[in-house]
What we know:
The complex is a heterodimer.
Chain A: H1 2-18, H2 24-34, H3 39-63, H4 72-89, H5 95-121
Helix pairs in contact in A: 1-2, 2-3
Chain B: H1 2-33, H2 37-47, H3 53-78, H4 83-105, H5 110-129
Helix pairs in contact in B: 1-2, 1-3, 2-3
Amino acid sequence: MEIFLTILFGIIGGVFGGMGMGGGTLLIPLLTIFLAVNQKLAQGYNLISFLIMAIIVLIIHIKNKMVDLKSIILLDIFGIAFCIVGALLISVIDSEILHYIFAGFLIILSFFEFFKLIKKNE
Amino acid sequence: MPNNISMKKKKKSFNWILDAIFGSLIGFINGFLGGGGGMIAVPILEKIKKLDNKKAHATAIAVMFPLSVVSAFVYTLTIEFNWLTLAILAVSVTAGGILGSFLLKNLSGKVIRIIFAFLMLGSGIYMIIS
């Protein structure tokens, strides 16, 4: 059952991730809520499985001429510096606290999504 | 005319600062929360880089890729993974991702976005109360 759920959650996360919609924002809570995976571990699983998926999906998107590579350079130069900071921070923060921060992040993101949807409707 | 050129220059340096701010933000979230950076990258790519919606979604994955390589590496230094679970997840996420990348090409969007927003809100609240 656990393996079945792991596969199911992976596919759900992957579908949204492959669309660039934030698969991790679904995969991480699915893992922590239903499979009682520790928050830090769930984040790590998400990062690594995203990587393998992204390699294949990016090939498809680049072939379809959907990726604007020159847009990413500067964003990523600064991004890499700060992802190291963020990733190092998790080794000093309690997993429980991280869990709540992540939950708050999800709620804020969902408000932004709702806001965007409403704005588009007008 | 010279005025026009200097304005263009100004705009360019302004964009550079925006790249720095948002790049840092996306990077920090990717490392600290292990995901969700792409959700922020999409509107940034639309607004600053003027990409259309679908291109912004695809490009967001390209933005997140190098960041996730670095974050994942740092995670492996401090976290012990269950490699079987990781392998199962990697395969299923990849299978789902391929499906998703084809869906994106034909995405009409609205319904799926509403579902997605509710899923995020629901799991966020559940994570707090449980």
